[in-house]
Amino acid sequence: MKIYPDAHYTDPWLPGREIDLFVPEGRCRHTVMWMHGGGLEAGSRKGFDGIAAQLCAEGIGFASVEYRMYPDAKFPDFLVDCAQAAAWLKANAKRYGLSDRIVIGGSSAGAYISMMLCFARQYLNDAGLQPEDFDGYIFDAAQPTTHYNVLKYRGMDPRLCRVDEAAPLYYVDSARPGRPLSIIYAENDIPARPQQNDLLVATLRHFEYDMSLVSVTNMPGYGHCGYDEAKKDGRFILADMIAEFVDRLDR
Fold it and tell me: Which of 174, 170, 107 is nearest to 138 (CA)?
C-alpha cells in the first residue's frame, strides 16, 4: 500500500481541507472516498490506516477527507468542502494510481454528508459534477433528517426531527442518481436513528427508486458505529462491508 498523506483538494490551499490517499500496490479497481464522523464538530480523517490497508489488499483504494466543522464552520461549509474533495479526487485519482470509479461514503456525520451529496444534487453540481458521476454511496449510521448539530447551532433542540433544506430526506422526491446505495445502522443506534433510516428507505420506495439498488444492514447488538473499529476473525467489520458493496458494483 502506498500512502499520500495531507494532499490539498482546494486551490489555492485552504486549511482544514486535506485528503489522505491510500493506494493498492497492484491494480486499483475502485476508490472509496470516506468522510469521518464526529457530529460535524469533532473527528478527523486520521486513524483509518487499518481499514485502508485491508481494502487496498483487495484492490480498493481509500481516500479519507478532512472538512470544516462547527464551531468555526457553518452550514453548508462541510458539504461544499466534501463536494470539492469529490471533484478533486475525480480529476486526480489516476495521477496517484487510484481508480476514478469512486464510491462516496462515510460514518455518522460523514454519512450525513454522503447522503446530502447523493440526494441534494446542487452541492456536486456547484463543483462541476452530478451524483451520477459516482458509482455508489455508503451511508453508515447517517441521519437523514436535519442533522442534530445543525439544529443545535441554529439554537434549536437537537432532539427535534426536522425535514428541511438541511435534510437528505427533503430531496428524495427529485433525487434519482440511479446508483447503488448501502444503508447501515446499529440495532442500538442513537435514539430514533434506526427509525429515521427506515423512513428513508420507505420514502425511496414511495418515490419509486429502484430498490434493487438499495441494501439495508441492521447491525445487531451494536451501538452507534460500534462496529466501525471492531474486528471479526482479525478483520475490520466495516472494511469487509465496504468491500462487499464494491464487489457488488464489479459483478
Answer: 107
